[in-house]
TrEMBL record:
<protein>
    <submittedName>
        <fullName>ATPase</fullName>
    </submittedName>
</protein>
<dbReference type="InterPro" id="IPR052188">
    <property type="entry name" value="Ni-pincer_cofactor_biosynth"/>
</dbReference>
<dbReference type="InterPro" id="IPR012096">
    <property type="entry name" value="ATPase_PP-loop_MJ1638"/>
</dbReference>
<dbReference type="InterPro" id="IPR014729">
    <property type="entry name" value="Rossmann-like_a/b/a_fold"/>
</dbReference>
């Protein structure tokens, strides 16, 4: 499931940062969760085996059925956590994605006025991915708080371990790939097949009508490349996809009235 980082200095440093960050939330989570998360990092650092028997601890995962959130779900289940994947059902999602999420036992929630908020962003020529992500995470955290679940995990590929786990309001936010210093290639290996394509059908529709969004998308890809989350080959495929002039399948998601 997980590979030991070996002599990779940068990843080892990030993992040590993760251990420091874990200590800061030690009193916010159960002893079982603390020990199991620490064991995961030590396994990644030293190949140190640990007891993966199920523990009485629920973790909510913000689930998109993509490689990063799928890898997050699989790792946590492998480590013995009771994982609840929560998917925010969005209008641009294809049936195949929803069926895939159901196969993992996903719980579905919604965001009120989602299209109205995103359409306002598009009308201003503003990036939509960050806004969409923040609304999704808020909806997932709301679900966790309603159910009394303390840990909310995501598949965010951050470049540092110091903010991979932290207290956010009433929940502990766990960016698991960052916590374990995983990169995109590793999450794909764990999750399975993956299509190197930037953005959902709604983003493609928006970028077709507001090309400035392609510039923002390329900047995001380059940030991930500089951070080491993706490599040059992945970055090339994503950027060429962003620059493609083909009309997206999801163009009808945004009517003239909406934008």
């Amino acid at each position: 499931m997980l590979k030991v980082v070996g002599d990779d200095f940068i990843k080892r440093y990030r993992l040590l940062q993760s251990l420091e960050a874990l200590e800061k939330v030690r009193e916010e989570i159960s002893k079982q969760s603390y020990r199991r998360l620490k064991a995961l990092v030590e396994y990644r650092l030293f190949g140190k085996g640990f007891n993966r028997a199920p523990i009485d601890e629920k973790v909510v995962v913000a689930f998109s059925a993509g490689s990063d959130s799928t890898a997050t779900l699989k790792i946590l289940r492998w480590a013995g956590f009771e994982v609840i994947p929560v998917m925010v059902e969005l209008p641009q999602m294809e049936e195949s994605i929803l069926w895939n999420a159901q196969s993992y036992g996903a719980v579905f929630v919604e965001i009120p006025n989602y299209m109205e908020i995103i359409s306002e962003q598009i009308e201003k020529g503003a990036p939509i991915c960050g806004k969409c992500h923040s609304m999704i995470m808020d909806a997932v955290k709301d679900y966790a708080m309603r159910k009394g679940i303390k840990i909310v995990a995501s598949g965010d590929l951050l470049s540092v371990g110091s903010i991979s786990i932290y207290l956010q309001g009433d929940v502990v936010k766990l960016n698991l790939p960052a916590f374990l210093a995983l990169d995109k290639r590793e999450t794909i290996d764990i999750a399975g097949e993956y299509s190197f394509e930037f953005g959902c059908s709604l983003w493609k529709s928006a970028a077709h009508q507001s090309p400035i969004l392609k510039k923002f998308a390329i900047q995001r890809v380059l940030r991930e490349l500089r951070a080491g989350a993706i490599d040059k080959d992945i970055a090339k495929k994503l950027i060429f996809g962003i620059l493609a002039k083909n009309n997206p399948k999801g163009l009808n998601l945004l009517s003239k009235k909406e934008v």
